[in-house]
Design goal:
Length: 409
């Protein structure tokens, strides 16, 4: 039997297993999927937990419920990839071999990378919402908070779902208004970027949104340390911002196993060919989702678009054919803006988010870069789509490559 090994059964690894299992001849190919955690987290739902919109139960399901029939599953830590000899060492003592490898080990937040961030105040008045534990602790804190200064801070880029901290700020504005304490809360959005977002046109619009909602934007602030005894974040150039509660998006890094295997950059992201998704170094290794070093957004929607191209390229690689360079960096994201409304952005490596309409057969069109109720419902519908269609690798009426139809230049 020839072996296809998939490391990581999160969004991207699960989609790939579901797409490839029916496509490969079961008498010739054995697919093995490895993950250390038996729970699947719907991470976009973490955003809603602090504001009591979702509960923990809404965002967790058993991973196995989403695996296709006929594949091998190893529930174990992955300790080391040895790409020179096509082997992977697992924490349970097994050594797996492969003909082709797909790395889908994702990314995680690392608060310990910033001096002082994880001191005694961690989860007392310093919280993250990028983990289930952080989102639930923040929910509990906000339930009793009577107001003060809330600082929402991105430590450094890249982060997964780069719009999530903005969405958190917009929802905070709505939540405190709803609780009747908005006048007692000062919200500041502190970012290392020159504006509210990575892309200039969207950054301008989202910056205007922050202003309209009386959220103070502090750009170009790169946190060097946190003085949690004094409730202050301090930048590398010694500027200080004080807070009563700090909502942090800590440094995002690829999995530790990537560092253990000598396969990553400084942040453990794997050098990946931007259009084919093949490892830059190894011809039988492919990378998908948050694990890549690509400048595309680290998002579930992106993993889904990448999966269409990677599926084709794995089949081509097996047949010894030339790979297709079909991934264009396409990202598509609803941005919750509070008060039951949202925006939608759609972009790729070359085209920044543009205004206009986003056609979607049977459901759309949605409005691009414009606040509507319909976009809010699109965001809320995404959870159903994620569990029922996206993870299963079903065909969605959205093309992997970005389309210009409906967009205004
Ligand atoms: C707060 C928040 C909001 C978000 N909002 C959105 C949104 O609105 N829209 C959107 O499209 N995306 C959103 N995302 C991003 C999205 O969730 C991720 O980009 C997506 O899940 C990445 O998929 P992945 O498969 O690359 O990684 P993951 O889904 O994280 O999977 C990685 C898997 O690898 C496993 N793994 C890692 N290392 C090891 C090891 N050593 N041994 C064994 N197993 C290992 C992990 O257990 C995990 O199951 C959001 C994320 C967050 C945190």
């Amino acid at each position: 039997m020839k072996k296809l090994l998939i490391l990581g059964a999160g969004t991207a690894g699960t989609i790939m297993a579901n797409k490839l299992a029916p496509a490969l001849n079961k008498n010739e190919w054995q697919i093995t999927l490895v993950d250390e955690d038996d729970k699947h987290y719907y991470q976009p739902g973490f955003l809603f937990i602090p504001f009591n919109i979702y509960t923990k139960e809404d965002v967790i399901k058993a991973k196995r419920d989403f695996f296709p029939a006929g594949i091998e599953v190893e529930m174990s830590a992955i300790e080391q990839i040895q790409p020179e000899v096509n082997k992977v060492k697992l924490g349970n003592g097994k050594v797996l071999t492969y003909d082709f490898l797909i790395v889908a080990t994702g990314s995680k937040v690392h608060p310990e990378e910033t001096e002082g961030l994880k001191n005694g105040a961690w989860r007392q008045n310093i919280f993250d919402f990028y983990t289930i534990e952080g989102a639930c602790a923040l929910q509990n804190f906000l339930k009793y908070w009577e107001g003060g200064k809330m600082v929402i801070n991105i430590v450094e880029m890249p982060i997964k779902c780069p719009v999530a901290p903005l969405e958190f700020s917009f929802l905070a504005d709505w939540w405190f208004t709803d609780q009747g304490i908005r006048d007692k809360v000062d919200i500041q959005f502190v970012t290392p970027l020159p504006g509210a977002f990575t892309k200039p046109k969207a950054a301008q619009l989202l910056g205007d949104f922050l202003e309209k909602k009386n959220i103070h934007l502090v750009p170009e602030f790169s946190v060097g340390r946190v003085e949690s005894d004094n409730n202050k974040i301090v930048s590398w150039d010694e500027r200080e911002i004080d807070y009563d509660v700090l909502v942090t998006v800590p440094t995002n890094m690829g999995a530790q196993v990537i560092a253990n295997s000598g396969m990553g950059d400084d942040l453990n992201f794997i050098p990946t060919e931007p259009h084919t998704l093949k490892s830059k170094k190894y011809d039988n290794v492919f990378v998908i989702g948050d694990a890549t070093d690509l400048p595309s957004s680290k998002a579930g929607s992106v993993a889904h678009f990448q999966a269409d191209i990677l599926y084709e390229n794995i089949l081509r690689a097996i047949d010894g054919r030339k790979l297709v360079g079909g991934f264009d960096g396409h990202a598509n994201c609803f941005i919750e803006s509070g008060f039951g409304k949202g925006l939608l952005i759609d972009f790729n490596y070359d085209v920044e988010p543009l205004p206009g309409k986003y056609p979607l057969p049977g459901v759309g069109p949605f409005s691009l870069l414009q606040e509507t109720k319909m976009n809010h419902w699109g965001k809320m519908m995404f959870r159903w789509v994620y569990w029922n269609l996206l993870l299963k690798g079903s065909k969605l009426p959205i093309e992997a490559q970005m389309a210009m139809a409906g967009k205004r230049q």
